[in-house]
Amino acid sequence: MQRGLRMIGYVILGLLLIYGGLIALVYLNQHRLIYAPPVARGDIPAGFGRVTYATPDRLELAAGYRPAREGMPTLLFFHGNAASWQSSTMVTARLAEQGYGILAAEYRGYSGNPGTPSEIGLYEDARGAWRFLREDQGLAENDIVLVGNSVGAGVATQLATEVRARALVLISPFDSLEETAARKLRWLPVRLLLSDRFANDQKLPEIGEPILILHGEEDSLIALEQAQALASVRDDTVIQTYPGWGHDLVVHEPVQDRIAAFLEQPQN
After folding, report:
1. pLDDT profile of the chain (268 residues), mean per 10
2. Which of 40, 168, 173, 190 has the highest CB neighbour count under 10 A?
3. Is residue 70 classed exposed, middle or buried when 0-12, 13-18 and 19+ CB atoms within 10 A define those classes?
């Protein structure tokens, strides 16, 4: 009897040790799990020029820029995970053809840039991109539209709390990274483990710009309910969802058409 109880105790202890090891592994490697820079590309897409700008913490980042046609605004575009500034040019091509300017912003640790990505670091990268448009290119605040896809929506949202812009467009956003991780890893205490949280839902009330949220109804990475919860934070937020489309929503050209229609509205 005692031997059996002892064996059960050993099994429970072993399981606890394994579980504790998994928790430690996730905690110590969370930035590697959150940020997944693709292999760096050296090409420069047609119509864009390679530019560099400094972040407030003195990193020099390379990105891509295409000036706007006279009288048209410029999109400051923050891409999602596992993407690059070059891929940003593909998912904004239709808007570029209409004359919108595009600053395909880039992050530290992506596309061969120095540094290691983190929530605080990406916010610094956004500030550097904003300063490039305002100071180096001489654009007015109302000539800049903040656009973010997936985790880039968190970057755009934070920047919108710090500056005035023409509008804020969030594609496939989450209400918070904490909520996203908790939904995916229910067996881990991720709310206690996460150091990067991207609490977009807490920031929207601070933002005065018109806000458009676009989300795929079949998004298996960031649940539709999260985008709806984010939109509910501010009553005048415009949200449009797309049946049958998932987390790759940004690649669909109608999404760009919807952004253009939103920006062309008189109140914007």
Report:
1. 61 56 55 80 94 98 98 98 96 98 98 96 98 98 98 98 98 93 68 82 96 98 97 96 97 97 79
2. 173
3. exposed
